[in-house]
Structure formats: C-alpha cells, structure tokens
Specification:
This protein is α+β, with helices and mostly antiparallel strands. It is built from 16 helices and 21 strands.
Length: 502
C-alpha cells in the first residue's frame, strides 16, 4: 500500500562498526517509536517496556502465557486478610554498578514509585508501607486488599534500579539508567538509537546469549520491514498487517503474532484545560455522534486487512472481563447528525493528533472522511509520539489517536485512564461513580465479585466517551531466519532471554 524504501541510519551503522567486537553477537531491533524516558517510574510507552525488559529485572515477571513467575523475588505469600505481601528475594544479585540488590533496595524502589515527582506508577499502586524483615525478605503492608498488585509489580512498578545511582543522578537518571538486569545501558541518541551491552555479572547470565542490543526507533512500518528484509535489522515489531503477505513470502524471514491485551482508540479532551470547552469536550452527545459516524469494521479492513478485532471496550474479547452484552454500535450517520443538531453543534470542528507514519496518516484520513459525512470538520496534525504524549499531558489537544499495550488485570486497562486520580487520565475525565467502582474493584480478589463492577464502569464510560475504543490490534513481528528463540507474548514486549542470533 505504501512504497517500500530502504533506510539505514548512517550514524548507527558507523557506531556499530566502530564499537562492536568482531565476535560479538549483536541484535538490532526496530521499534515503532522512541521511548519517552529511560526511567521505569516515569516511562509510559510500550517501547520503553521493551527496552526495560532487557535492562531492568522486576520482582516478578510474566511468562509468555501471562502467568506470574519469579524473577528477583523467588517466592511470595499473602496473609489471610490479603493485606500483607511478603517477598523472599534472590541472593547474589547485583545492580549494573556493582551495588548489591537486597531488601533495602526493594524498599527504596517501591517508595520511589510513590514519591518521585511525575511518577506514572503511583496511580497503579495502592497506599502501602514497606518493611525490611531481613536482608532477603521484604513485606508490603496495604490498607486494604488490592487484587492487581502482583500484575502491577510484574511491570515497571516492580523494576529495580540502583538506589545509589538514582540518588546520585537525580533528574538525570533517565539519561543514564542503572538497573539489576541482563543488559546495561551504553548510550542513547534520541530518535536514533539505544544501545545496551551484556552485563557479565548478571544472576541469570547462562540464559543470555547476546552480547549487544541496539534499538532503532523507526515509526514507518514499511521502513522497518525494508530494513529487516535487507538484513540491516534482525527483528522488528509492529509489522503492518498489509505487509504480512510480503513477510510470509520472503524465505529469509520468520514471523510471529499474538492477540493484544490492549486497544487503539480516540482519547478525547473532556476536562483538561481550555481546549476541553468546545462541543466535543463539553457535550457527550457530540462524542456519541463522533462514535456513530465511524465504521469500526471498515477501519479494520482498510488499516489491518481484517486482522485486528473491532471493539468498544477497554478489555479484549479474550479476557473474562470483556462485557458480552455491550455490543459495538453500528455506524449510523443519520443518528449522528440528529445528535449534533440536538446539541446545537451541527458542524463541530476539532484537531486530531495522529502519528507521523503513513499508517497513522491513513487511519486519521479514514476517521476524518467518515466523520465528515455526519458534519464534523476534523483537522489532522501529525506529531511524533513523545511530543504527542507531552501535549496530551498538559491538555494541549482536542483528540488524539492512542494505544495501550494492555494488562491481564482489568485495573491496568481502566484505572489509570478513567479514574479522576489516574496518572494517564489525559482527558481529565471525572465521574464519581466510576471512581467509586474502580476503587471498590481494586479491593476485591475474586473474579466473580469484580466482573460486575468493571461491567458497570464500561457501561458508564460508553455513555460518557472520554475514550472511543476502536479495535484490539494483533501484534505482528518479523525477524531474520538467523534469529532463534523468539517467543511472542500478548503484552507485546520483546523478551531477550534465550534469544540467539546464529
């Protein structure tokens, strides 16, 4: 659909030739975007999670089938009330600056999640107190049960950074991160490359086969594909569905896929500053009209060759928390026009932030054309990912096409976006009933008790529409046949354990 052009970053090629030993097993990975900051407490990107997966071990991890498994904690136990979680820690672990990992380091990191200015982890965690029981035992004491805690700690909130480095570097830590992981940070050139090299004193080094990782942010999916086909990249994420036939036909390439836990949707500014005061932000009838102007199935067919799953919910149909009796509303241009007339805004105008890739432009153009039939005047503004995130956070937007890689627990797909205190609630959506339901669901453990609460949240969100969910993507990867051991996972994160290039 888009012309394929080969694009190699000269500075990267020179750096690889100059710095990589001839015998080094180096893997070059093409990312869809550049992480915003290399500090797990401040990061909010999927590609940041991918880089951290190689660099920063967590207390617990997720297996390829999304089960909680040990990592820096070898075991854990709850008290009967579900308010105390005790971890036994792995002995002999070192941070990449040679400092020892122990219970005091865990206490420092968990408290940093809550106290670091700008933390995106604070909203994922409940109030808690951390106690060092002994050098290899740490206890979290909660005010009340919190069902998603282990899932949260299997992500960035559970990543362990060196307390010594974090204290010494302060605000500059994200430019020189030091963790307890398999690969240590070497350099970063924004929008160009991130380079990591193997940490020889890593506790699980027998399962690390690579010597160096280089991540290249290349927003254009066709460019990523051209590079992996030419051998200039070894592994790429975000293969365009329209390019899958090319990948499958190329004898030099392998491929993998996984159904995503997250979603792609339109985040609408409903309360974040002056730009929320227009018809779109201030009137749910206008937002409902926008939803009714869109044909999710047609968007899926054009953008994804039908590979993605059109939907109107924050949990994918593969989740037991998906609400079966909340069907996707069909496109209804006549009803959309009637709602706009009722709202006194027959021709509302707003700006939609989109990505800089050709696929993002095409998605924006389809939405623009469909909505125009109902009376909307949408202006498209192409913006790189990091700039768009900053604009959304400060309220300098009307609407933005965004995605979320998803979590296995529904709290991770809802609270941080829909709760008034959620750290990623860029809409500044406020519904006291939604807040109450989300708080209540966090304190329950049994799925059957939580399901009706999240169903109510989804029903209320579907009326207020701070986010118009469009579809659940299919993760698609391609790699050279020399790459062995790649294990796709529905969280979209590339894992480097036992990954080889031979």
């Amino acid at each position: 659909m888009f012309p394929v052009s080969r694009f190699v970053i000269p500075s990267l090629a020179a750096a690889l030739l100059a710095t990589a030993p001839a015998s080094a097993q180096s893997l070059k990975i093409g990312l869809a975007s550049d992480p915003n900051i290399l500090d797990p407490v401040l990061d909010r990107t999927l590609d940041g999670r991918t880089v951290f997966q190689a660099m920063c071990d967590k207390l617990v991890d997720l297996s390829a089938d999304m089960k909680i498994v040990p990592q820096l904690a070898t075991s854990w136990s709850w008290n009967e009330a579900g308010t105390e979680l005790t971890f036994k820690l792995r002995d002999g672990v070192l941070f990449q600056d040679g400092e020892k990992f122990d219970a005091a380091a865990v206490k420092y990191n968990l408290e940093r999640d809550l106290t670091l200015p700008g933390s995106n982890r604070k909203g994922e965690l409940p109030p808690f107190k951390v106690t060092v029981v002994d050098p290899l035992t740490v206890k979290m004491e909660l005010e009340k049960p919190f069902a998603p805690l282990l899932v949260v700690l299997a992500d960035r909130a559970g990543m362990m950074v060196s307390p010594k480095a974090a204290e010494a570097l302060g605000k500059d830590f994200g430019n020189h991160p030091v963790c307890a992981g398999a690969f240590k940070f070497v350099e970063r050139v924004t929008q160009d490359r991130i380079v990591l090299e193997r940490f020889d004193r890593y506790w699980n080094k027998d399962h690390i086969k690579l010597d160096r990782l280089t991540y290249l942010p290349l927003p254009d999916g066709s460019v990523r594909l051209a590079n992996v086909r030419a051998g200039d990249l070894d592994l790429i994420e975000g293969v365009l569905p329209t390019d899958m036939a090319t990948v499958e036909a190329d004898p030099k390439l392998g491929h993998a896929s996984a159904e995503e836990l997250g979603y792609i949707g339109l985040t609408l500014n409903v309360g974040n500053g002056p730009r929320a005061k227009g018809p779109l932000g201030s009137d749910p009838r206008v937002r409902r009209a926008l939803e009714l102007s869109l044909d999710r199935d047609a968007i899926n067919q054009v953008i994804s060759n039908g590979l993605d799953r059109p939907d109107n919910q924050f949990m994918a149909p593969v989740s037991p928390y998906h609400v079966a009796d909340l069907p996707v509303p069909p496109r209804d241009v006549a009803k959309a026009k009637a709602l706009l007339a009722e709202a006194g805004a027959p021709h509302p105008s707003f700006t939609l932030l989109i990505g800089v890739s050709p696929a993002a432009a095409q998605t924006g153009q389809i939405i623009q054309a469909m909505a125009a039939e109902a009376g909307f005047d949408i202006k498209l503004q192409a913006t790189d990912f990091g700039t768009a995130l900053d604009a959304a956070k400060r309220g300098d937007f009307d609407a933005i096409i965004g995605g979320w890689s998803g979590r296995i627990d529904p709290d991770g797909n809802s609270y941080i976006f829909l709760h008034s205190g959620g750290p990623l609630n860029d809409s500044h959506y406020l519904n006291p009933e939604v807040d109450q339901l989300l708080d209540q669901a966090r304190a329950l453990v049994a799925d059957e008790a939580r399901k009706p609460l999240y169903a109510k949240v989804q029903a209320l969100e579907s009326q207020d529409l701070p986010i118009i969910y469009l579809y659940h993507p299919e993760y698609l990867w391609a790699f050279g046949k020399q790459v062995k051991g790649f294990a796709p996972a529905p969280d979209g994160v590339i894992r480097v354990t036992d990954l080889t290039k031979g």
